């Protein structure tokens, strides 16, 4: 496994929950962000959090918090760009980063290794996760060298959809089973939080 830092994308506006930080909502006594970090930390050389606003609200996690440097919250691609730029500036020589959504509490424990294996086997520029016949492009491996092209796409072209950008490059897709639960279940609504409480028991709490 190549040494890969990870970024938790926690910059969403949580409109369907009435605002606030989705990753700070609790599932079975733990915040979603706690669960995401617990899953990713053993798989990555280090973790950073991408979030906008006051970084002090994440201080208890002891991780670097990096904001988007683009205006108007253009979505997760801006967070990925911020992470790519941070990695290039602070970890020279690092070629890849792993990204994951901050509202996915049940991420697979073999996420990094399977994505990296598929990317290497297919000599791809990117690798993304899939489950249940659906891709999850916010969860993937990203080439640091593509950061300039991503910035141009966001700033000059006004591109916002992740899959429109990833479709420009050779990409490896890795599929996970949805049994006993979908590891990419994301908590978007209040009802999702209730469902996540139930799923947490299936996932060992």
Tag the structure with descriptive keywords:
single chain; 205 residues; alpha/beta; Spore Coat Polysaccharide Biosynthesis Protein SpsA, Chain A; seven-stranded mixed sheet; two-stranded antiparallel sheet; 6 helices; 9 strands; 30% helix; 20% strand; globular
In short:
The protein has 205 residues and is α/β, with parallel strands linked by helices. Helices cover 30% and strands 20% of the residues.
- Strand line-up of the largest beta sheet: 5-4-1-6-8-7-9
Radius of gyration: 16 Å
What are the secondary-structure elements, in order, as H or E?
Answer: EEEHEEHEHEEHHEH
CATH C-level class: Alpha Beta
Oligomer: single chain
At the fourth level of CATH, the homologous superfamily is Spore Coat Polysaccharide Biosynthesis Protein SpsA, Chain A
Shape: globular
Mean pLDDT: 91
Number of helices: 6
Unreliable stretches, pLDDT < 50, 5 or more residues?
A: 14-18
Return the CATH architecture: Alpha-Beta Complex
What does this structure look like?
The chain has 205 residues and is of the alpha/beta class. Helices cover 30% and strands 20% of the residues. The protein contains six helices and nine strands; from the N terminus they run E-E-E-H-E-E-H-E-H-E-E-H-H-E-H. The strands form two sheets. A seven-stranded mixed β-sheet has the order 5-4-1-6-8-7-9, with helices on both faces. The protein has a two-stranded antiparallel ribbon with strand order 2-3. A hairpin with a 2-residue loop joins strand 2 and strand 3 (30-31). The longest helix is centred in the middle third of the chain and has 15 residues, at 76-90. The radius of gyration is 16 Å and the shape is globular.
């Amino acid at each position: 496994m190549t040494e890969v830092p990870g970024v938790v994308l926690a910059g969403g506006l949580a409109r369907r929950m009435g605002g606030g930080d989705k990753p700070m909502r609790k599932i079975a006594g733990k915040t979603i962000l706690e669960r995401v970090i617990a899953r990713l930390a053993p798989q990555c050389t280090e973790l950073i959090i991408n979030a906008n606003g006051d970084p002090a609200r994440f201080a208890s996690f002891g991780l670097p918090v990096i904001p988007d440097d683009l205006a108007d919250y253009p979505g997760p691609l801006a967070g990925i760009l911020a992470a790519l730029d941070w990695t290039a500036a602070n970890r020279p020589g690092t070629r890849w980063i792993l990204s994951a959504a901050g509202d996915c509490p049940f991420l697979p424990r073999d996420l990094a290794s399977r994505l990296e294996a598929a990317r290497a086997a297919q000599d791809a520029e990117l690798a993304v996760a899939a489950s249940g016949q659906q891709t999850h492009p916010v969860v993937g491996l990203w080439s640091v060298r593509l950061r300039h092209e991503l910035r141009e796409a966001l700033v000059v072209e006004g591109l916002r959809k992740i899959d429109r950008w990833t479709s420009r490059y050779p990409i490896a897709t890795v599929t996970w089973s949805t049994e006993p639960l979908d590891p990419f279940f994301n908590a978007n609504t209040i009802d999702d939080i209730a469902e996540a409480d139930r799923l947490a028991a299936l996932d060992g709490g």
